[in-house]
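Sample intake sheet
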Amino acid sequence: MSWLERLPVPSLGEVTRRIGGLGRSVTRWRAKRRASPMWTVAIAAVMAVMALPLITVVVLALTPAENIWPHLLANVLFGQAPATAWVLAALALSGLAFRSARPTAPAALPLLWVSIVSLILAMGSFSGSFGQTILLMAGAGTLTLVTGTSAAWLVTMYRFPGRAIADRLLVLPLAMPTYIVAYAYVELLDYAGPLQTMLREAFAFQSVRDYWFPEIRSIGGAIFLMSAVLYPYVYLTARASFVQQSVCALEVARTLGRTPLGAFWAVALPLARPALVAGVSLVLMECLNDIGAVQYLGVQTLTASVYSTWLQRSNLGGAAQIASVMLGLVIILFAAERMARGKAQRHHTTGRYRSIPFHELGGWKGFAAASLCLLPFAAGFLVPVIVLLRLSWAAMGDTADAAFWAAATNSFALSAIAAGVAVMLALTLGYARRVAPNGFIRPAVRLAGLGYAVPGTVLALGLLIPLAGIDNAVDALARSITGLSTGLLLSGSIVALVIAYSIRFLAVGLGTIEAGLERISPNLDAAARALGETSLSTLMRVHLPLLLPALGSAGLLVFVDAMKELPATLLLRPFNFDTLATYVYGLASLEQFEEAGLGALTIVFVGLVPVLLLHKAVAGGRPGG
């Protein structure tokens, strides 16, 4: 028997099944090809631009002109540490090892928290910029967590005099840039400020040695200022979580004998943990990104070290190595945030939503609740604004000069361009994920949202080198062809700033646009495609008119964030080009607070509009409400 005769002969039914399966395979293939592959190409191009600064920083850190890691480790990053730091670190590592070996032991969970606190204190004991950064992040994270969570719980679950007003006032510090708050508090609390001057006059003190007054230019002052400005991140996320929670779960806890405070600890707080972790993560990233406030307060964080190493010591390789440490911290923050979420799922088990039963607080309890809610607002917004108004009034005739108007014009124009570019990129990413959700686009869109976590100094450092390389290549080509020099087309213009703003604030616009796309029924896409529209024409003729509110909100949020951005602007701006942020920074650095007041107030009041819109969306976000 030949080999041909030994081949199995399929039956008629098997042949039919195979033909039917082939048809289904073709149908699935055609369904996957319903969108143009250009969407994948566009997303790949966007991701390449976003990855460029990060790759540049890593390459510069790994290939410096000279090996200065020993110097950085010994003098810049870590410095000297007392013996207690090593003892705390050993205790922390021992506790973490015990937790890993015996995770179900009764003492495992308390020991874990003690180990984490000990490890933070150990790292913060180092005198270098790494220890200062860890202390700042730990202190600000703890204070904002306590302040934002307690205020959100009071406003959500209790009714007291002034509650509605306090709910709106609590979000206003989010419009205050941290460096402006630092300038205001230094002007108020410094030795030559009005408070210490009044104190010396009242008690006839002759010098600072005659009395004690808290030093605002310190790591403690930086923690207080950061917490006063950044607690709204935690307040808004906690408020949104408490508004969404089921009343039934809280009532069950009460029927089982829990007090209102006990129900908060046992039910509401665990349910809100993902939101609280997200809010604190934003606070920590803002602390890592800040340069104006910490530099002015004399706190040498990693961001300040990158700035001074690059510009003052002219050591680009060393700045890249410090920036790589910052990138490592960002990765650790994201990993910790994902681990904190775990695999637990928290959702409603019913589709019924009832109004929140407020607990009435009257008398001294109501007054205490109102005071607790108004105190963070006063520290983070009211006091700095009063100081700025006083300064602006004192120099009203001199502040609105040509330099101010030029900086204001530059700020508005640059922020508008950056908002337009960021919204366009966010729309491309969000719509590509909707119409072509393949194995590349889905993770790429998620990764694109991580740009907000990259500090501005890292972005500036990573962008300047490749953009300068492109400028040099274009200039050499133009000289060889025409004999004319093109100059710095990218690195020496606002193009570099627009790219940096777009990368950093893309996540702000992407979240808003994706939320808008989720409200549009997929049936509209199917109907448009059935009528012969392509994915691009469907976007132009169907989705864009429906997305106008979301596009406007996204553009406004990016616009305001770009107005406040300082680190990237300081490092990438062209010569003799000032925005309001750098204008205020420059005047404050020269101790000219009165001249800086009007510029600072302009930034603050522009930022109030999106903050109030964001609060409205959060406070009215309860389903069924």
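Comment: Strands lie at 158-159, 359-360. The first strand starts at residue 158 and ends at 159.
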